[in-house]
Amino acid sequence: MNETLRSDVLISGGGLVGQALALALAHHGLSSQIVDPADPVTTIAPGFDGRASAIASATWQMFEVLGIAGRLAGHGCPIRAIKVGDGVPGQGRGGELDFVTREGDAPLGTMIENRQLRLALAAGLAEAPLVRLLMPAAVTAREVNAHGVTLTLDDGTKLAAPLLIIAEGRRSPTRDAAGFSIASWSYHHHAMIGAVAHERPHGNVAHEIFFASGPFALLPLVDDLQGRHRSAFVWTVDEKDGPGFAKLGDRGFVAELQKRAGDTLGTMELVAPRMTYPLGFHHSASIVAERTVLVGDAAHGIHPIAGQGLNLGLRDVAALAEVLVEGARLGLDLGDAALLARYQRWRGLDNMMVSLATDGLTRLFGIPGRTASAVRRAGLGAVQRLPMLKRFFMDEARGEAGDLPRLLAGTEI
């Protein structure tokens, strides 16, 4: 008979958010067991797969506390400016609004290849004795009662803890089985992501260009080993056009890409595989249940229009870690309903506001017609002329607004 392996928490889902949470808890003396059916070897396979993330400055401060930032040295490209424009047919892009950091200020974010994030987290977890990584492994049974949570794995192993944390991503079977109520809808758009090498240096500038068919973003990456200038792209198209773009050869795809980018970065070539996925919204009405909490995309899935998806999940990590660490110091049961209610209050409103804001922007910039475009350009121009409003948006981009957990402020819990 297999013995039961116990820890302070169980984490279902071993992606970026789940592993970051385990590392944050271990850093403060709490043990965890991570269960995920994915093979970790495949997630850190050599080669750039085209996926990259903009890490907000506040999140980067958490990475510094947890020792992740040092492992990412040389792999991050600071975003020093963001240029936003409402696309005009025949004119490539407009440039009505720009956010530029002042000398000495923190960057608006740092672009990192997801593979480098996974490597840094894997190295950190390898040195964290309080983390047990069970990957690949599948859960065949889950029991939640007044005394705790027990998971049974496909090999018969039993895991037990006072709390189950679900970090499985958008299509979370454990969340659905636990009965969380999810509001969701499709945007009827597809996102195409990848990376290009380009003729001109990007100057640490990110470009967000809005077309009636959807937003188009170019995000600066570090130069590759051959010295080529690189940027990631996130290109949104109507769902009826997605399959057609996916079928284009590389040369035809790059030609269409350069039409949207205009002459911003000069000639381009693909340097990573292209990926396409449908865009949708989902939001859980509650992020806690009996001895169970949601973090990351299991709790909220937003449009990539503002690049805040991963950061929102890592803000969940910082808040939940603080709640649990402080609860443990007081000798509380980590699955206590009152303790979890604090996490719900802290993260529920922020998650909802960011989700609704990105949804609203998506709908606003998706309205076709010259009148709508003129209104959008007028709005962008108004923000451009109001320094206090620009500063507000820049603080939001950095993740420095609101009631920050200590990790996001760069301090220990």
Care to describe what's here?
With 413 residues, this protein is α/β, with parallel strands linked by helices. The protein has a domain at 4-49 and 114-184 and 280-366: FAD/NAD(P)-binding domain, CATH 3.50.50.60. Helices cover 35% and strands 29% of the residues. The chain contains twelve helices and 22 strands. It has helices at residues 16-27, 40-43, 57-66, 68-71, 114-126, 173-177, 242-247, 250-261, 309-329, 337-365, 370-384, 387-398; strands at 4-6, 9-12, 32-35, 52-55, 77-79, 81-86, 97-100, 109-113, 131-134, 139-145, 148-153, 158-161, 164-166, 182-198, 205-211, 214-221, 229-238, 268-270, 275-284, 288-289, 292-294, 300-301. Strands 6, 7, 14, 15, 16, 17, 18, 19 and 22 form a nine-stranded mixed sheet that branches. Strands 9-3-2-13-21-20 form a six-stranded mixed sheet, covered by helices on one side. Helix 1 links the parallel strand 2 (9-12) and strand 3 (32-35). Helix 1 runs parallel beside helix 5 (114-126), helix 1 (16-27) packs parallel to helix 9 (309-329) and helix 9 runs antiparallel to helix 10 (337-365). One of its GO terms (cellular component) is ubiquinone biosynthesis complex. Belongs to the UbiH/COQ6 family. GO terms for molecular function: FAD binding; monooxygenase activity; oxidoreductase activity, acting on paired donors, with incorporation or reduction of molecular oxygen. Residues 7-329 form the FAD-binding domain. InterPro entries: FAD-bd, FAD/NAD-bd_sf, Ubi_Hdrlase_CS, UbiH/COQ6, UbiH/COQ6_monooxygenase.
